[in-house]
Amino acid sequence: MTSRYPTRDEWLAMAGEEDELPPDALRLVEKAAGPEPRQKRQRLTRRTRMRQHRREESNLNVGGLLGSSDYGLLKQLVRERASHLCEKCGRENRRLTPHHRKLLSQGGYDGADNLASLCSQDHDWCHEHPVEAMAAGWIVPSYENPATYPMLLFDGRRVILTPGGEYEQAA
Ligand SMILES: [Zn+2]
């Protein structure tokens, strides 16, 4: 249990640092102001965080976190990008979890370019081996942009993940 990666809600509760968040995140926050999340716990957490974002709109340092329903669609988009295979090991019939390449605690945001679809084994591995994971692009450093930071796929390709949920060959 000690090595367990924090859940999304735990991250939201913990991530108090807002000063590293990308400027273009404002658009996502505006989008997130749409449908209300269903689960009570999530609603309270997100609502609190959205209020913080609103307060800080003036300097554009806001977090790009989506509400539950938009996040659900985003997760689906990312899973379908890899035809429901783990993007690191390529195995199928595994439970897939969305992994924020730039961690939420490091200014990561909800976007197809920042999410990898990983089996829980590889998800854990990434967080236990950050140096190796960073070299392969499964983790993006806080000072880099996920939209331009290539990721190694299970088939050996190095790809850029687009915000629209597609792969582009990395230069
Ligand atoms: Zn895997």
Salient structural properties:
171 residues, alpha+beta, 2 domains, three-stranded antiparallel β-sheet, two-stranded antiparallel sheet, 6 helices, 11% strand, globular, binds zinc ion
Structural account:
The chain has 171 residues and is an alpha+beta fold. It folds into two domains: 8-36, no CATH class; 74-169, no CATH class. 35% of the residues lie in helices and 11% in strands. The protein is built from six helices and five strands. It has helices at residues 8-14, 25-32, 40-55, 68-81, 120-128, 130-135, and strands spanning 96-100, 115-119, 151-152, 158-161, 167-169. It has a three-stranded antiparallel beta sheet with strand order 3-4-5, with no helix packed on it. It has a two-stranded antiparallel ribbon with strand order 1-2. The N and C termini lie far apart (40 Å). Zinc ion (ZN) binds at residues 86, 88-89, 91, 118-119, 121-122.
Q: Unreliable segments (pLDDT under 50, ≥5 consecutive)? A: 16-21, 36-44, 53-62
Radius of gyration: 15 Å
Q: How would you classify the helix and strand content by structural class? A: alpha+beta
Give the mean pLDDT. Answer: 78
Can you summarize this structure?
With 171 residues, the protein is α+β, with helices and mostly antiparallel strands. It has helices at 8-14, 25-32, 40-55, 68-81, 120-128, 130-135; strands at 96-100, 115-119, 151-152, 158-161, 167-169.
